[in-house]
Structures are given as structure tokens and as C-alpha cells.
Protein 1
Amino acid sequence: MRKARWLAPWKDSTEKPIIYHLVSRIVDRRFVFGEAEREHFRMLMRMYENFSGCQVLSYCIMSNHFHILLEVPPMAASGLTDAELLKRLSATSSEVFVAGIAKELEEARAMVAQGLADEAYVKRIHERFTYRMHDLGEFMKALLQRFTRWYNSKNDRTGTLWEERYKSVIVEDGLAAKTMAAYIDLNPVRAGMVADPADYRWSSYGEAMGGGAKGNGKKARAGLVRALRAHKGYAADAMYWNQGVAREYRMLLLERGVEQLEEAVGETGEREVKVKHKGMKKELVAAELAQLERGKEVAIGKMLRCRVRYFTDGAVIGSRGFVEEVFLKSRERFGANRKDGARKLRGQGEAAAGMLWSARDLKKGV
């Protein structure tokens, strides 16, 4: 029997949000995400973001897998107003369906006013939909199932499309969330698909840089603002993008983007300089970093040129105190011999050791 998914211990809090890094791969790791598939997946992701009340902070859709950094905020203690519920429903349902629910709510409110029903009657109408909101499992279930149905219909196939159940990692806000967002946006650079992450259309950074003042470009900028500033109480609002956030994030991404060179012996016996990692040219990056006035935390970007397995399999990522807190509140998941929760990052993640910690002590491919 497989273990239940490790959700944040405060998942039922009415005040504290949760950030998760989510990863899912196509079965057999087949390359099925072409341009049309990436566009459709992104459209569905935004639809269910608008419906669920969850916030996509960062994302990247690759050829055979995707990453999403998702914030799951608590439902307001007072619930949703009728107008808010109908707006949420309009993200995923037809106008006819939403109009039907609007009429049902109007009639229910009239019955309450006449003393023929109580507020619990109206609440039950809301609960037919709100149980799928502000919930990680429901967000991912709807997104993956809806995309599978579309893809199978388009390609005359049946059966599962995803390799296994999706992976999730609990992420602390602040440094951990910022680092994870950059790690996600740098996927196409690590894969050698682009030199500059701004050039990849199907990522949060590409969408933030290439999108307009409204729509998904604005949403992408708002998500990255939240990823970089949630610990400072900033709302997910694109208006803060040009108030230092864009520059800080660009600095982190650029440090990763430097073209890596190595020396090798050529056929003539002479030493040759070859490109080890195809990124932005070093002199261009140096010039732009100088303009941006390099910050103290930029050095961590060097780590992001590598695959860091802790970010997908570490279960919990954050400061030592954060990981210990989550461990203690989830003590039942571990054996009696486990005395503490935080594990120091090693291997490819060693550059962040002491700043970021993991709940899992990974042995291979770290």
C-alpha cells in the first residue's frame, strides 16, 4: 500500500498558505508536448488556477514533463460570496451552466428572505463546488484528467498519459521559493533548448517577459512577485514587478546562464576550447550583471545549472527551522529511530547547504 501524499501539516489552516513544487512526466517519458500541447496545457492550468483560487507562482512545460510552483491559500473563513462563486465557475464552465447556478442561488436567497429556508441551504449549493477549491489534490486531478481527455481524443488513444502519480515537495517561502522558481524557469536552459530563459515561451519567466500588460503575461509576473516576495507580505500583484523584483530575478537567472567552457585536446594534438554548456556569452552576462548591481544571493544561481534532485524528491525544502517544524508535525510518517527532520544538501545541491535543507537524505543522483 503506497503512502499517503505528504501535505503540509497546516493544510486546514484558515490563515497560512502552502507552496508546493509539482512535477509530472508523460508515460515512458515520451515527447508528446509539441507547441499545440504546451499551449493547451497552459490554458487548462490557468483555467483551474482561476477556478480553484490556487496561485501558479512559476511553471515550465517541457517536451515530456512539467513543473509547477503552486501556492495553495486557505479558503476565507467567511467563504465566497455568490458573485465570487459564479466568477470562479465561469473559468471552467459554460455560460449556460453558470446562469443556471446563478438562478438557483437567486431563488435560494429569496427563500431565505421569506423564512422558507436557512443559510445552510445556500451553503450547500456553494459546497457542491467549493470542495474542489483551495486544494492541491483537486487542482492536479482536474488539470491532469482534463488534459488527458483532450490529448487522447486528439490522438485517438485511450489509457493513462502520466508515468506515475505526480511528485510534490513542500517549499518554504522566501529563499527556498525564489530558488525553486528559478530552478523551474531554467529547465529549458539546462536542456540546451535556449540560451536565455526569457526566450522560452512555455515558462513563467518567458510569459512574464513576453506577455502583455493584461492576461497571462500579467498573471505570470504576479506569480513571480509572489514567489520572490511572499515572505515580505507582498500580494500576488504584477504592479511590483518593476519595483526591483524583475531585476533581482534576472540577476539570479543570468548567473546560471553563463556559457560554460572547457579545454580539450583536439585531433591535431593541440588544446582546444569547447563549449561545455551552451548559455549566454560570458561577456554579455557580465555586462548586464554589472548594470543590475549584483546582489548577495546571486551566487546560489551557479547551483541551478545542474539537476538538483532535492528539488523534486526532497519532500520538504526550506530553512532548517522550517523543515524541522514540518517534520515534528508529521512525526507519524517516520520510524522511531528518526530523531530530527532537516538533512543537509549534498552533491549538486551543496552550494545551498546551510541555507536550504531537505527532509530526505538522498543518496543517489543528488
Protein 2
Amino acid sequence: MFFAQYSRRCVGLLAVAMVLSACASTPELTPSAAPAGNYTLDPTHTSVTWSLSHAGLSNYTARFDKTSGTLDFDPDNPENSAVFITIDPASVSTGLPDFDQTLATDSRYFDVNSYPEITFVSTQIIKTGDSTADITGDLTFRGVTKPVTLKTKFYGAGKSFGNPGKTLGFSAETTLLRSNFNMTHLISFGIGDQVTIRIETEFNEG
């Protein structure tokens, strides 16, 4: 009895290991390794953080918990690809729920009742290396649209657990002035105007 139970357990563990090994593989680092077509942002493997100076003493850092988006990917000519991203500003997360509520709803901050979305629509992609590019697009935030450029790195194309098709991985970073988007509260008290945005994300095929 014990031997039979032990054997079934071993077989079960081996099956799980085989499934996991089949679902995850070393990414192929060249863009041409990925199929052309439409990809959907994976919110469970996406992180959007922002930081700004706190009176010169530290870089205060928070994040948005809800993002969505699409990628129309051209592996042979990545410059012809297109990205569309939506961020829910009500999902701002600092670790302090009361402050999150203030940031989300106060008219001096994200004012989600008036501006329920932050969007980015790519307008130009310029390759800067084998796996890097500058993605310029229109960022709409608090009713203002301004161009920003994301310094972007392509991590590769591979298999991600739970996704039947290819998964593409990227990181990106940009800086902007929040005063350009009519958010000036506390700048005069030393809370930074320049905001750094960092993105880690995956896009799933199909």
C-alpha cells in the first residue's frame, strides 16, 4: 500500500515537473523569434512604478496595480509595431490605503472622478540596438496630452506558464514633469516635479 501511494506521488510530481518545464523555456533574444501579430498585456506580470523626490531626502516610490494594453508586433520591422496602454489611476498603491484614496480622488492629484484613465499611444519607434528602442507616444494624463519617450529593452520571446502562445517581455523607463499635466501641488514645498516611471511587462500572443 505504502509503495503504491509513494509511486503515484512520484509520478504526479514528475508530471508536474514536465508540465512546468514545457511551459517555461529560455527566451529567444532576437525580436525576429516572435510571431507577428497582436499581443495582449499580461496584468499579472506587469509592474508600473513611479518615483519623485521627497524634499531631496529620498525618492518616494509607488505603483499602479491595474494596467491593460495591446501590442501589434512586427518582428521583421519592429519600427512598424504599435503599443496602446491604459492605466487605472484609481489603482494607485503606496502601502497606505487612506493616502491612496486621497491621491486617487483629490483634484490636486489624480482626480479619477474627472480623469478615470491614463493612456499611452505609440506614435514612433526607433531602434537603438539589437534589443533596445525608443518608443515615443502620446501620454494623456489629467486631460492633457504630451509626447513622452520610453527607453525600452526587449527581454525576449518565450513560453510563459499558463499561456499557450508566445510571450514577449519588456522593460521601459521615462521621466516627465508632472507640472506639464497640471499637477503642481506641493512642488513649492520640495516634492519633486520630475517623475520617473519604470515598467516591467509581458505581452501574451493572441
